UniProtKB/TrEMBL annotation:
Function: Carrier of the growing fatty acid chain in fatty acid biosynthesis.
Family: Belongs to the acyl carrier protein (ACP) family.
NCBIfam families in alphabetical order: acyl_carrier, PRK00982.1-2, PRK00982.1-4, PRK00982.1-5
Protein name: Acyl carrier protein
GO biological process: Kdo2-lipid A biosynthetic process
Compartments, record wording: Cytoplasm
Chief localization: cytoplasm
Entry-linked PANTHER family: BLR0577 PROTEIN
Superkingdom per UniProt: Bacteria
Keywords: Cytoplasm, Fatty acid biosynthesis, Fatty acid metabolism, Lipid biosynthesis, Lipid metabolism, Phosphopantetheine, Phosphoprotein
Organism encoding this protein: Cupriavidus metallidurans
Changes after translation: 4'-phosphopantetheine is transferred from CoA to a specific serine of apo-ACP by acpS. 4'-phosphopantetheine is transferred from CoA to a specific serine of apo-ACP by AcpS. This modification is essential for activity because fatty acids are bound in thioester linkage to the sulfhydryl of the prosthetic group.
Pathway note: Glycolipid biosynthesis; KDO(2)-lipid A biosynthesis; Lipid metabolism; fatty acid biosynthesis
């Protein structure tokens, strides 16, 4: 495998690149999972081992970037993966089943290509102006703001909260006004607790209204029993992709009109201390949050006169600067990046009919301008939002990657590539529990076979041999020595079975 990325911060992207400790994950570490699908405690185990932080911690985001960087380093050191600091500017078909990847004056041939390009730059609806910050993640984007500036932040989501927290840290004194059509900050999270899976995709009517009623009914039932609605929503979340794909275009549009923003507010939540801090800013008159839409602006001395529509009533405010936090563009057909300009100009890509990213098929293969899915050319992440909806959270990305890997196995290895990550995790857990005579629950919760489960060297030898028999692979001695946790075993099995399938 070869990763092409000109960035020096591989595995971080935008989300996990910034070193500020106050930019935190919006879920506890226990919900972030591991580096692969089916490894529930990978990050939380690493966080405890490396930093002494519990699984309930809403960790700084850069720590998750450190974790992913470490996983990628392990993969590249194993020889299963290489990285090239190349910006890919073109992908073209070669023959019947291959692709030529070009960039920075060099070309490479590949049988399979996965586009993992992340977010496009933010939606551009504001004019270019020195006092308008169109991309808050650009280097030094907030540095020119005077502490006494009156600010308009367009958006009230997680990025807007990050901006306000960063301004607070820089001792900002001027009034900050946040606006959005609903006027709601993300809702505070609750203590994590298991909630039974109550929803069935095949239980008849899946119209948006029916799904909403079923969800609200379950929340009411849960709250009567003392359960938090947040845990009900978390239990429901893994059905969302399947529901979205079963909806007709008309039903999807109805959800986008009336339900999407409410879902996002409840789905992407805030740690309780961050929510309390934001409310303290409101109480002290440092921050106001308005249910309003941006309409237009006029430049005035030292800033702008901004026209808003507050519940359809025209309003105006005077501010010194405007900050756009409305999120990334999904208009890939008008993206300025060379790669997407080439793909669209040569009819190798098409925009999703909902206007939300690229058009892909159910296997996440890119659909060309003629409506044909291109075998072996996959898309992962936010570019697939229109087809799958839930695609940007860490669990969603892992699931998408797992399904793509599974499809590659079935298509390229005639179904013999039978080691989807979910299957590996379950089978490894079962083998460990049998070999070390402990329950599956204990295996999942504990980290070290030696420290936590009391395994000796012969136990580990027996365990490795059992893994080889189960997965029909040969684990080299050096690799076997690294298997000290369930996560180690899962990664080792993936590496060995993948290599041996490719060689075969």
């Amino acid at each position: 495998m070869t990763i092409f990325d000109p960035s020096s911060a591989l595995a971080r992207g935008i989300a996990y690149s910034f070193p500020q400790k106050w930019l935190r994950l919006n879920v506890p570490a226990s919900k972030m999972g591991g580096g692969i699908e089916g490894e529930p405690s990978g990050f939380s185990d690493w966080l405890l081992r490396s930093h002494g932080l519990p699984s309930s911690e809403y960790a700084p985001r850069f720590l998750y970037g450190n974790y992913l960087t470490e996983l990628l380093g392990d993969l590249t050191n194993s020889g299963n993966c290489e990285t090239k600091p190349v910006e890919v500017t073109a992908i073209r078909k070669v023959g019947d089943s291959g692709y030529r990847i070009s960039g920075d004056g060099v070309s490479f041939d590949a049988d399979i290509v996965v586009l993992c390009t992340g977010h496009l730059p933010p939606n551009k609806f504001l004019p270019d102006h020195p006092r308008i910050i169109g991309d808050v993640w650009a280097p030094n984007a907030l540095d020119e703001i005077d502490p006494d500036d009156k600010l308009l932040v367009v958006g009230t989501g997680a990025t807007a909260v990050d901006v306000v927290l960063t301004l607070h840290r820089s001792l900002h004194r001027g009034l900050i006004t946040m606006i959005s059509p609903h006027g709601n900050l993300p809702i505070v999270d609750a203590a994590e607790a298991e909630y039974p899976d109550f929803f069935r995709l095949h239980d008849g009517d899946l119209r948006p209204l029916t799904v909403l009623r079923r969800l609200r009914s379950e929340i009411a039932r849960a709250e009567k029993s003392g359960d938090a609605w947040q845990n009900v929503l978390d239990s429901f979340r893994h059905h969302v992709r399947g529901i979205w794909q079963r909806w007709s275009p008309r039903e999807r549009k109805q959800f986008l009109r009336h339900g999407a923003q409410t879902w996002l507010v409840h789905r992407h939540r805030l740690p309780s201390d961050v929510a309390e801090l934001m409310q303290s800013f409101v109480a002290s008159k440092k921050l106001e949050i308005r249910r309003a839409r941006y309409r237009s602006l006029k430049e005035v001395q030292g800033g702008f006169e901004v026209q808003l529509a507050e519940r359809a009533v025209p309003k105006q405010i005077i501010v010194n600067r405007i900050i756009n936090t409305t999120g990334p563009s999904l208009a890939f057909n008008s993206a300025k990046t060379p790669l997407y300009r080439q793909l669209f100009s040569e009819n190798m890509a098409s925009q999703n009919p909902m206007g939300m990213g690229l058009q892909v098929d159910d296997a996440s293969q890119l659909v060309d301008g003629h409506g044909h899915a291109q075998s072996g050319l996959y898309v992962l992440g936010s570019a697939t939002r229109g087809h799958f909806w839930e695609v940007t959270g860490a669990p969603d990305i892992r699931l998408s990657a797992s399904l793509i890997a599974d499809h590659i196995g079935k298509v390229r290895f005639n179904g013999e590539f039978d080691h989807t990550t979910r299957g590996v995790a379950e089978r490894v857990t079962k083998i460990v529990s049998q070999q070390l005579d402990v329950s599956s629950t204990t295996v999942t919760k504990n980290t070290s076979f030696i420290v936590d489960l009391g395994a000796n060297s012969l136990d580990l030898v027996e365990l490795v041999m059992a893994l080889e028999e189960e997965f029909h692979c040969e684990i080299p001695e050096e690799a076997a020595e690294t298997i000290l946790t369930v996560g180690d075993a899962i990664q080792c099995i993936h590496a060995q079975t993948f290599n041996q399938n490719v060689e075969a």
